[in-house]
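Narrative of accomplishments. A recurring question from our advisory board has been how the design workflow behaves on a single, concrete structure rather than in aggregate. To address it, we present the structure tokens for one chain from the evaluation set, followed by the sequence designed for it. No filtering or post-editing was applied between the two.
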């Protein structure tokens, strides 16, 4: 319920704050006094689109704020779904800045308009002749039936099963599409994989292959060059080894003279040892170097295969080719085993479908039991509201597909007069009849579920006399379990309220402002008397007002 409402700088309102109570609060005022402004501000607070033109002074910020007492309404899950922190006393604030931008806060946490709207529908329910269109919505009609049937827990179970069924069905559909695409690619992927497998790439050292191939294809040049090197090293007269040995022999004569000559002898001796080793290696390589045409052909074929595969797959190394081979193998494996996965998913979909259908059947059975009760209660209330011949026909049918709220379609038909055929509410019910049907529906709902704050905006239009009295009694009964605000022009309804607010206009500093006043007992008598007899209050009107209040 709303505990207070504050409005600043909105339309004709300068600054209003009103404390609201449980039970039934009446809001009265002359036509044009600003009752619609009050509802407009409240609608803005609940997520309606902001408009800078509704700001009183465009140079200042417009602020609308309300506190809601939420204990017992079980709205924790709604807060969680909208990523909001739940508090039993929640403050909602909406601001319109001079720039025209708007922002919203829930418990001082910034929220989007979408979050505000999602929360707002659980806080306040505003009804006028325009809002009665909800009655024609099949989902709303089913919600009313489910409230009487007590289907809350079953619907939660169904919703979970239905979502599981949809998710499993989506996965199955995706897997079947994957299979269709994979089947198209299977032959090509298999060809590529076979090509890579037959190349026997594991353990292949491309650099070593290229080096060996270069040596073999240039074996003649290499052998000739190595022979020249060997000759330069070992020739008898001018070979490097021969001259180095002669130098070593000469230095050997000087070794005993000093350490310096000893070191020189050691160094040249080391060079000779290294040269002898080089000579041996050159001779060995030269002897083993042989240009085998068959080996060259094998190496060439291996390298050409590598180059072709690397160009085809746009890579530069053997490692990358092996990665591609592994990925192709995985794709082929998935394609070959996808049928078993599809079979498993088909069983899962069938299982979830059966669970959903079973719970849906339970919901359908409880709906079928509840409909006669709902029909009887609505027709009884409408009879008291001046529609004694009003009749409803609820046609509950199995739906072809699973619905969000069960496995049924519902068609609600209505007639207000004997002898006339049933028709849809939208076509056969007048505005006044729709208002009374909405009141009857809300009255029935209030007996079975805890509703948010309800605001009736002149829902009593077009009624008077005893019907107005009965409408007031129904609202009063509803207010025993909920907060109810009623904007009215009827004294019979105004007298039934536990609290009374008056909206009026006043000129302040040559500017018209909308004001709000909480009426005491004496002021209520005068206000109701004026509703009965006009501004010039007579003793008879006062007496009538007192009688209504008593």
């Amino acid at each position: 319920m709303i505990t207070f409402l504050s409005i600043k700088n909105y339309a004709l309102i300068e600054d209003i704050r009103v404390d609201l109570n449980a039970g039934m609060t009446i809001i009265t005022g002359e036509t044009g006094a600003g009752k619609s402004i009050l509802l407009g501000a409240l609608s803005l607070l609940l997520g309606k689109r902001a408009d800078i033109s509704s700001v009183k002074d465009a140079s200042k910020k417009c602020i609308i704020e309300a506190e809601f007492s939420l204990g017992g309404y079980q709205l924790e899950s709604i807060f969680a779904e909208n990523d909001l922190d739940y508090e039993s006393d929640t403050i909602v604030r909406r601001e319109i800045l001079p720039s025209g931008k708007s922002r919203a806060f829930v418990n001082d946490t910034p929220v989007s308009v979408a979050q505000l709207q999602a929360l707002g529908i659980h806080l306040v329910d505003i009804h006028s002749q325009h809002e009665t269109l909800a009655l024609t919505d099949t989902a709303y009609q089913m919600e009313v039936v489910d409230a009487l049937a007590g289907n809350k827990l079953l619907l939660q179970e169904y919703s979970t099963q239905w979502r599981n069924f949809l998710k499993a069905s989506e996965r199955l559909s995706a897997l079947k599409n994957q299979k269709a695409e994979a089947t198209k690619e299977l032959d090509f992927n298999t060809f590529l994989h076979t090509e890579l497998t037959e190349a026997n790439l594991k353990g292949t050292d491309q650099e070593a292959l290229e080096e060996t191939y270069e040596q073999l294809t240039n074996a003649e040049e290499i052998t000739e060059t190595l022979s020249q090197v060997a000759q330069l090293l070992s020739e008898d007269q001018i070979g490097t080894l021969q001259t180095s040995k002669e130098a070593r022999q000469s230095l050997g004569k000087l070794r005993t003279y000093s350490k310096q000559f000893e070191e020189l002898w050691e160094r040249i001796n080391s060079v000779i040892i290294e040269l002898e080793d080089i000579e041996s290696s050159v001779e060995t390589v030269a002897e083993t170097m042989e240009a085998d045409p068959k080996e060259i052909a094998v190496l060439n074929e291996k390298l050409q295969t590598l180059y072709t595969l690397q160009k085809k797959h746009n890579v530069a190394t053997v490692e990358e080719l092996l990665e591609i081979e592994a990925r192709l193998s995985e794709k082929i494996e998935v394609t070959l085993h996808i049928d078993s996965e599809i079979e498993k998913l088909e069983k899962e979909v069938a299982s979830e479908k059966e669970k959903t259908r079973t719970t849906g059947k339970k919901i359908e059975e409880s709906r079928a039991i509840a409909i006669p009760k709902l029909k009887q209660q609505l027709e009884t209330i409408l009879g008291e509201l001046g529609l004694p011949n009003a009749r409803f026909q609820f046609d509950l049918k199995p739906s072809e597909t699973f619905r969000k709220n069960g496995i049924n379609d519902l068609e609600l038909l209505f007639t207000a007069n004997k002898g006339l055929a049933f028709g849809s509410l939208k076509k056969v019910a007048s505005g006044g009849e729709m208002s009374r049907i909405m009141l009857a529906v809300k009255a029935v709902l209030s007996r079975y579920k805890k509703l948010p704050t309800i605001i009736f905006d002149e829902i009593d239009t077009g009624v008077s006399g005893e019907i107005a009295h009965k409408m007031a009694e129904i609202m009063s009964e509803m207010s025993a379990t909920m907060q109810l605000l009623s904007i009215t022009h009827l004294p019979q309804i105004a007298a039934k309220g536990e609290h009374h607010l008056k909206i009026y206009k006043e000129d302040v500093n040559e500017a018209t402002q909308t004001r709000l006043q909480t009426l005491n007992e004496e002021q209520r008598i005068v206000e109701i008397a004026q509703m009965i007899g006009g501004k010039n209050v007579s003793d008879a009107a006062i007496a009538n007002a007192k009688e209504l209040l008593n």
